[in-house]
Each structure stands twice: as C-alpha cells, then as structure tokens.
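Give me structure tokens for this 177-residue protein.
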Amino acid sequence: MELEELRQQFVNDFNMNKLMNMTKEQEVVSKLKDYAAIINSLYSAGVVRTYNSSVGDYAEWIVSTKLNLLLEKNSKKGYDAIDDASGIRYQIKSRWMHLGKNSRELNVIRNYEEKQFDYLIAVIFGNDFEVAEAYKVPHDVIGEYFLYKEYQNGVVVTLGSNFIQDTRVEDITYIFR
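Here you go.
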C-alpha cells in the first residue's frame, strides 16, 4: 500500500507540473501576442519604424518629437534626424536599463570618421521606458573618448562619468520631463 501511495503521488506531481508548464506556456504565448499587438499599433502610429527592437525606434521618435526634428528615412546613412531650419544632423542612440541590464554602452556608430552627423543624442531609458538621462554630444567630442573597434566595425560610446561630465556634453534630460 505504501508503494502504491508513492506511485500515485508521483503521478499527481507529474500531472501538476505538466499543467503548470502548460499554463506558463499559455501565459508566454499570450504576452507575445500582446507584444505583437502593441508593436503593430506603435508601427501604425509611426512611433516605431521597424519591427526590430523598438527601443531605438522609440528613442528616435521621442527625440525628434521633443526637439522638433525631422526623422530621416530608415535607410538614411549616418544620421537619424535633422533640424530642417538649421540643417544640423543628429545621430540618436539609446539604451534601455531594464531589469538585469545596467550597461551604459550604446549601439555602434558606423563611419564615425566621415562626420555624417553634427550631434549625438544619447538617451538612457529607465525600466519603465521613462527617459532617465539624455545628452547632446558634439561629434568631435566622441572621438576624443572612444576609438574605432575593428571587431564591431565602428565606434562604441559608453556613457561613463568622465564622458558625461565633459563641459561640452549637454545634459538635456529636462526636455523629456
């Protein structure tokens, strides 16, 4: 009798685990469907321009909106937005500091030496996508701090304290509040 009780307990535990995994799987599928609906809605509204990671697209949209810039087409080489009146070109890079991610490294800047933009706008999003920090950086300042990395085929900017405390780097976080 004792052996039969152990067997039955094992079967019950096995079935409960299977049920829990199905519930988890269904939860994941449901969240992915919600994510797809959200991305499709943001795409239709013009907030995101690709179906890649929406972080960069959102940064480009929020920066262009707040700074009154004209977003370039996705295929435009070297910069993301332009001030139509002055002709000043902006490269926009961002990082989402979500749970488990605390790197302040931005995506690679390609062809930096060709001076295709005048300013870098660097945005750090907090966990809930609020703009936690934003900086306006003159093109030439980047070259003083960061070197070309062959394995990444470009320059990688990290928003460390020495860099963001340079007097030529402007903290523009207040614009997004």
